[in-house]
Protein: Concanavalin A-like lectin/glucanase domain-containing protein
Amino acid sequence: MAFRWLVNAILLGLPMGTTVGVLRGIDIHRASIGQSPLFDGSDSDLIGGGSGSGSSTAADDDITPGDNNITTSQYCQKSLEINPATKGTHYIFNPNQWGWTEGTEGSLCMNISTFNNHTYATNTTAPDFSVTWQYPAGDDTAPVHAYPNIKLSSDNLPVKLSKMKSLTMDIEWSYGIGTTPVAATNITSLTTNLVNANVAVDMFLDSSKSASQNSTKASFEFMVWFAMIGDSAEPIGLQQGSLQTQVLNNVTLSVFFLCIIFRVCPQLTCFLSDLYAGQNDLEQYVLTWLAPVTTEKFSGDIMPLFTAVLEANNATFPTSDDYLGSLQMGSEAFYSNVNVTFSVPAFSVDL
Structure:
């Protein structure tokens, strides 16, 4: 009897040990690609959503008193949600190499600098980040390899456009040749090296709250381009011409005419943009406000760009009953002959 009991115990123990071994192997694999373990002793949910293949987070109780150091972490995964802890507005980062196939030519890595005390300059200030990438030219029908970005994670989203009073942003960025951030963007140097990319805020709208939070199901994509680099990077509808022009930031009459007539707009004094529109391959209606000159710094309210669209009385445009469900800022990486680095030392959103 004792022998039979011993045999049964061994047989019962085998599948349990095998299961634990398999789960341990899965956890090791998840760690190798930057994903969180299946069992980490925590049952807390991550803030935010999206379609990333993994998540990374830190809890506020990880703060070490008096630790005011900065930690820089690198992420080279195809898609991964990175959710740094903060005492203020939450943001989610993602390398988002959605148009690149693993094992093929090209690469991208995102570097994020976080404050160990989880406290930033203002309540809405995000950690700064940079992205270094290089891809060969892709198919003309799908030229974009990635959209590395920072995404607003807020309880205020989705929000009906009729309820939005302002959408204030502070943005500073640069693009340069090489693997380290540059102080200023040299467009000539970039185009000489066949760099094709943009710098853009990307938002999604829909009459459904849930659909407005999904980048593939939303009816409208609403973009603000601060740079168009290279011949391949152009907004949908560019060839059909601008539908209207807007100047932001409560400019004086003299500055307004300077912007409109001479197409010159001093940075931070005003922001000039032209509206282009058309459908993409997902049959979403895309509205893009494009700055005719590279704009590396912007500080102001972009709500007038929404207002201009709503007041256009165009049946194909969004209405005040639609919801804004998603807001991201980043760079669409088309292709480049050399390594290039996109850097964002300052970003904040106040909705």
Remarks:
- The chain has one domain: 51-350.
- The first helix runs from residue 2 to 32.
- DSSP finds five helices and 18 strands in the chain.
- The domain at 51-350 is CATH 2.60.120.180 (Jelly Rolls).
